[in-house]
């Protein structure tokens, strides 16, 4: 048994995103309820860095999620 138990991962890393969190909520909401959409910003330009984390309320398994 592991010394430190990590909680199950409930977030999904997404690359090459649009700048709108609502677009991500609409697309990825098809796979379950979404708790949060986090789009990191560049420290200097304050522009989105091109990726996001989508957090679901429970662990999920994804075989392939493609929006292409």
Molecular structure report:
It comes from Amphiprion ocellaris (Clown anemonefish). The chain has a domain at 10-56: RRM (RNA recognition motif) domain (Alpha-Beta Plaits), CATH 3.30.70.330. It is 12% helix and 19% strand. It has one helix at 21-28, and strands at residues 11-15, 36-38, 51-55. The protein has a three-stranded antiparallel beta sheet, covered by helices on one side. 6% of the residues are buried.
Brief digest:
The protein is α+β, with helices and mostly antiparallel strands and 68 residues long.
Largest sheet: 3 strands, antiparallel
Classify the helix fraction into a percent range. 10-25%
State the name of the first-level CATH class of one domain: Alpha Beta
Instruction: Report the mean per-residue pLDDT as an integer.
Output: 79
State the end-to-end distance: 40 Å
Number of strands: 3
| Oligomer type | single chain
Count of DSSP-assigned helices = 1
Q: State the order of secondary-structure elements, H for helix, E for strand.
A: EHEE
> What spatial form do the alpha-carbon principal axes imply?
globular
- Low-confidence parts, pLDDT < 50 over ≥5 residues? none
Main sheet: strand order: 1-3-2
Global structural class: alpha+beta
The CATH homologous superfamily of one domain corresponds to: RRM (RNA recognition motif) domain
Q: Write the CATH fold name of one domain.
A: Alpha-Beta Plaits
Architecture of one domain in CATH?
2-Layer Sandwich
């Amino acid at each position: 048994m592991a010394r430190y138990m990590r909680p199950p991962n409930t977030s999904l890393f997404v690359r090459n995103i649009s700048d709108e969190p609502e677009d991500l909520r609409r697309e990825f909401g098809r796979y379950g309820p979404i708790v949060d959409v986090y789009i990191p910003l560049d420290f200097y330009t304050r522009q989105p860095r091109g990726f996001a984390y989508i957090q679901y309320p429970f662990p999920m398994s994804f075989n392939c999620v493609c929006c292409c």
